[in-house]
Amino acid sequence: xxxxxxxxxxxxxxxxxxxxxxxxxxxxxxxxxxxxxxxxxxxxxxxxxxxxxxxxxxxxxxxxxxxxxxxxxxxxxxxxxxxxxxxxxxxxxxxxxxxxxxxxxxxxxxxxxxxxxx
Length: 118
Fold this sequence. Notes:
Blueprint: H1 3-18, H2 33-43, E1 55-60, H3 63-69, H4 77-81, E2 85-90, H5 98-107, H6 113-117
């Protein structure tokens, strides 16, 4: 195994072993819209079935809306205290729109007709 691969493997193991689920937030902290957008942009780089990216994100920062959705989060304090709550929606029928999705991707220069055909 080469050193670069060993370092990456070691880094991955460190990340996995040191990760934790945050259960309390500073209710006075406000994350910027730019940071939220950057995180979601990076999240959308994850692979998906047929590369359809069948997800949508709703970002809630308004305290009144967080209060309204809190019952859906089992009335957990983190929902109220977090600077932003991200609701992730998945389209389980995205495959039905595969032609339209790929045509838009080609139009935007994101993919080529050859990739679509594959």
